[in-house]
Amino acid sequence: MTAARILTATMLRRLDALMSGRHGETVRYLIVGGLTTLVDMGVFALTTEVAGLPVNSGNIASIITAVLFAYVANKLVVFRARSPDRLSLLLEFAKFIGARLVTMALEVAVVWLIADAMGGNKYLGKAAALILVIISNYILSKLVVFRVKKD
After folding, report:
1. 31-86 per-position pLDDT tens digit
2. CA Rg, the chain, in Å?
3. What sign results for the dihedral spanned by CA atoms 8, 81, 65, 113?
């Protein structure tokens, strides 16, 4: 076995232990949150810089794309939630969308405040908003959307 394979295997074991350990859910959420942020910022840049959409239009498009990505990733990777039937799945998705609409309003308000009202940098506004949104989304997902019911 080569040194690279040994190093890779060791790193994978440590990553698995970190993601499955006591703080695994939080670690998984941070990783998925980082990926969701990349999706959000990437679509934001594409829509505002390449497509030339206004800041708020590009922001809304990026949020919608990121929310759809986040639902699948949070359900399967972070909270490992299972839905026993289609009705439960639809209810869970509706709660997720409802929670994200709340945080979308927060994000749009913060970006508007910093970029438009205060004349600041749109990316600084977006970054500041995303910090608040990531924290809010975790709390809402854990306590409302993917809450484990005790029988």
Report:
1. 998 899 899 999 999 999 999 999 999 988 998 899 899 999 999 999 989 889 99
2. 18
3. negative
Is residue 91 within 8 A of residue 143, CB to CB? The reply is no
Residue 50 main-chain phi, psi, to 5 deg: -85, -50
Token look-up 């499955």 returns: 20
CA distance 39 to 75: 17
State how far the Cα of 100 lies from the Cα of 127, in Å rounded to an integer. Answer: 17
Q: Domain coordinates of the chain in residue numbers?
A: 23-145
Q: Tens digit of pLDDT for each residue in 75-133?
A: 999 998 988 999 999 999 999 999 989 998 999 999 999 999 999 999 999 899 988 98
Q: With contact defined as beta carbons under 8 Å apart, do 107 and 129 qualify?
A: yes
Q: What is the pTM of this model?
A: 0.69
